[in-house]
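<tokenise_the_fold>
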Amino acid sequence: MKKDSLNGNRYGFQLTIKELLANSKLTAGNQEIVYRDKMRYTYSDLFERINRLGSALAGLGVKRGVTVAVFDYHSNRYLESFFAIPMMGAALFTVNWRLSPDQIEYTINHAEADVILIHTDFLPLLASIRAKLTSVKKIILLSDHALSLIHI
């Protein structure tokens, strides 16, 4: 293997999340992505949604080095978060909602999450541990309808 192929030059671009996504947009921009029967959009649409999410998070104060916990199903929202958060230089922390409340509390505190993006289905679980979360400053609700911010 040539030396250049080790750092991504074999592909004509670096193998970063941003470049992989941009390449998908260029080569398969009109290919459809389907999330269950709830959401259908193209890679071009996905790229736009990722950029909008990143801009919205930046507008809420998320910046490089901030830890964002995502408490959601494996959904279109999670996919968009998976790209948007690291692309803006923030750290993505996926909350495993299958853990016990005590374990979830521990992992969120250990990760020092500043922001939580949470699907409304998990609000009762979050309510049971909210008082014990030491670093969380903002909670953003996710649903199939809209995003909203809880001021705390």
